[in-house]
Amino acid sequence: MLSSLICVDDVEEKALSLMSKATRDYYQIGSDTEATLRRNLDAFRNLLIRPRCLRNVSEIHISQSFSIGNVNYEIPCPVGIAPSAFHRLAHDEGEIATVKAAGKAKTIMILSSLSTVSMEDVARESGDAHLWFQLYIYRDRNLNRRLVERAFKSGYKAVVLTIDAPPFGRRRELGRHPFKLPPHLQLANFESDEFKITRTPAGASGVRQFADNLFDESINWKDLKWLVETSPLPVVVKGVMRGDDAVRAVESGAAGVIVSNHGGRQLDFAPSTVEVLPEVMAAVSGRVPVFVDGGVRSGNDVFKALALGAQMVFVGRPVLWGLTVGGSEGVSHVLDILKSELEYTMKLSGHTSIEEVQQSKNLVVPSSYFLSKL
Q1: Of 118, 150, 237, 282, which has the highest C-beta tally within 10 A?
Q2: Does 192 score more than 80 pLDDT?
Q3: pLDDT exceeds cutoff 90 at 91
Q4: Angle between helices 243-251 and 273-284 (to 10 degrees)
Q5: How far from 140 is each of 146, 179, 205, 216, 244, CA to CA, in Å?
Q6: C-alpha to C-alpha distance for 62 and 44, rounded to whole angstroms
């Protein structure tokens, strides 16, 4: 079946036909009118690639190298797995299946703190995957400390702090039909007695109740500095959408920046991530690696993000679709599609390496670029 799904859109269509309405709504929806969700997709479509001709593309290289803290990474294809909650809604093996695919691709997987498999169990099955652990700032700072300590002891190489969710965004369909985690699934990282404060009462909406009970709306730059100073792992900041905030993140000790608007699930009518990326790249000015997620649906999109300076992209929903249709093999299929499409785009645009792509001036431009030439 997987071989008949030749692009990510095919995988999405098949996955949505297999999901229950509750799962489909939870994975698919954006905040309020979903303007940000749509803009993430539309912004990539609005970007054009100006190809070069008669360039020897018989051999190309799409690997990417960078450092986070004192760890050097060599990623064969610059596509990683973004953090997303509750993978066992998509497939019974959940995050175990996902990390096996990440290991096969030798790429980075960012495990959500709201995973349905514990960080320790995921780490034991990680193989050649590079594991980072996603974190929120909780009212109880000891909760943060204990989670980071567990991640460190389990072999995770970085903490990814989500900074764009002081509360969760308003999601209208979940307001009409509150999401409830099925009783056989758990917030696996919070199951031990030391985390019993995080339990939700029977019948509660789960994620919303969790956020309302624990998220700290008073978080500020001091909290990022506190985490950087106390964490044994380097801290990557996720949710940056402005150049000046990127600078403050770096000055606060962040070892990397992920340009992200939470997949369009937080602030409605925000810009897309790929629109913001050039501003963040200019502000950071090479001091730390910059990554991007949101709206990536093809290798063509990956190419555009790389051309605008990103070290690599992270994908969220496409991984969940692959997981739904084929478990670990389905996730691998999605990653393989993006890799193959990126290789085609590299060759057809006349480029043999990511370094060459990023050094090519005005390679990726908005569609209005040509109107200005008239």
Answers
A1: 237
A2: no
A3: yes
A4: 50
A5: 10, 25, 21, 9, 29
A6: 20
Distance, CA of 40 to CA of 62 (rounded, Å): 24
Burial bucket for residue 158 (CB in 10 Å: 0-12, 13-18, 19+): buried
Site of tokens 């997620």 = 293
CA-based nearest residue to 83, from 199, 22, 164, 143: 164
Annotated binding site for glyoxylate: 26, 136, 171, 260, 262, 265
Helices marked H in 140-206: 141-153, 172-176
262 is catalytic: yes
Q: Could you tell me which residues are annotated as the binding site for FMN?
A: 83-85, 112, 134, 162, 238, 293-297, 316-317
Token reading at 134? 């996603």
Task: Tell me what the mean pLDDT of segment 34-42 comes to.
Answer: 97
CA proximity to 221, closest of 242, 241, 237, 243: 237
Q: What is the largest CA-CA distance in the chain?
A: 67
Strands annotated E in 143-277: 158-162, 235-240, 256-259
Q: How far apart are CA 334 and CA 9, in angstroms?
A: 10
pLDDT at 272 over 70: yes
CA 210/CA 205 separation, integer angstroms: 9
**How far is the C-alpha of 369 from the C-alpha of 220, rounded, in Å?**
38
**CB distance 82 to 316 below 8 Å:** yes
Reading the block at residue 161, the tokens are 């702090």
Q: Residue 202: its pLDDT value, please?
A: 39
Tokens 């209208």 belong to which residue? 172
Which residues are bridge partners to 339 per DSSP? none
E strands, 241-293, are: 256-259, 290-293
- In angstroms, rounded to a whole number, what is the distance separating the alpha carbons of residues 343 and 294? 21
Q: Which positions make up the binding site?
A: 26, 83-85, 112, 134, 136, 162, 171, 238, 260, 262, 265, 293-297, 316-317
Q: Write the pLDDT tens digit of every residue in 142-180.
A: 999 999 999 999 999 999 999 997 767 677 766 676 777
